[in-house]
Amino acid sequence: MQVNQRIYLSPPHMGQEEQQWVHEAFATNWIAPLGPNVDTFEKDVAHYVGASGALSLSSGTAAIHLALRLLDVGPGDVVFCSTLTFVASVNPVLYQGAEPVFIDSEPETWNMSSRALVRALISAQRNGKLPKAVIVVNLYGQSADMDPIVNICEAYNIPIIEDAAESLGATYQGKGSGTIGKFGIYSFNGNKIITTSGGGMLVSDDLEALDKARFWATQARDQAPHYEHSEVGYNYRMSNVLAGIGIGQLRALPSRIQARRAIFANYVEALGPIKGFNFMPEATFGTSTRWLTALTINPQQAKTTAASIIQALSALNIESRPVWKPMHLQPLFKDCTYISHTEGNSVSDQLFEQGLCLPSGSSLTEYEQERVIEVIKSLVYGGMTHEIA
Ligand SMILES: *Cc1c(COP(=O)(O)O)cnc(C)c1O
């Protein structure tokens, strides 16, 4: 391997079985959307995460969109959303003509703060405008602390959509991440822990709702010999070829989780002792997949910043990224309401200012990881790369 071969943040990692399933699709000419691979993939995912049913789709974004429509979110409605996330968590709220209100993170999980959620709901009730749904995001492989969030939402009778695009395979109190809310969504985009090159899944215990979503996702064709339509639909289904990749990928998921957790542990061992370096905590309620190794760097304590590290890595052809820029700081959402963790203390702002995601792909070699670690150490110790005492 060349010394300067590019190291990516989270590249696709194909296993042994994917080609066989894709070949099967070719051999039986099930190239069209839908077919036996789609059915198998849905059953396999539902079984793996512990949901009653699953609907495979063209993207995770499509899954969120359908979940919002199932909850009858429309123009004039409000939807509460995690602020620290990728924009795809929120765009479907705009597709439906509704208005997002952003909820801060908590320091323990980096996910939705139940303290902020309570304050937001009290204030929403006072203004006579409770949200139609809450979208909880499970970031970087870790579930949000769902129990308090579920309790609060039940008290107000508000359904939860779990955006588990980044946390497939993680657990919360022994349950699969994404199965605790009324609806859960996964993504199989190229950078996720498993991929179909592009795709998504909607899961729920409400099979009737999934049937409705399946109907909308296939252009909302009414029962008739000709093409009959009485509702707006979408072209949102996953192709049978890509579902074949998904079947193979899902079988490799346990080993992918193990690999990413091991990569995280190596980073912690090598960089954890550096003053001002704080890795994303793993909450005691479950297992994180460590989809991405994320940490914050306190510039007052460390002799460097997240931005300097990103720059130094980039100069050596290594990809790293800041933590997601919170939605309440995005120009797109500048007029939206934002509720911080505690009054005057925004956790997500600080995570964004100091946060860093390191190369975490399950195919990352020991040698490649060592390269990443050496760059960071030399930045901190000014060329000296000895372990510190
Ligand atoms: C990737 C991602 C999505 C969107 O998934 P796509 O399949 O790319 O549409 C949604 N939410 C989060 C948090 C993501 O990371």
Provide an overview of this structure.
An eight-stranded mixed sheet has the order 1-9-8-5-4-2-3-13, with helices on both faces. Strands 10-11-14-12 form a four-stranded antiparallel sheet. Strands 6-7 form a two-stranded antiparallel sheet. 36% of the residues lie in helices and 14% in strands. It folds into two domains: 237 residues, Aspartate Aminotransferase, domain 2; 134 residues, Aspartate Aminotransferase, domain 1, CATH 3.90.1150. The chain has 389 residues and is of the alpha/beta class. Helix 1 runs antiparallel to helix 8. Strand 2, helix 4 and strand 3 form a beta-alpha-beta unit. The protein starts with 17 loop residues before the first helix and ends in an 8-residue tail after the last helix. The site of pyridoxal-5'-phosphate has 14 residues, from helix 3.
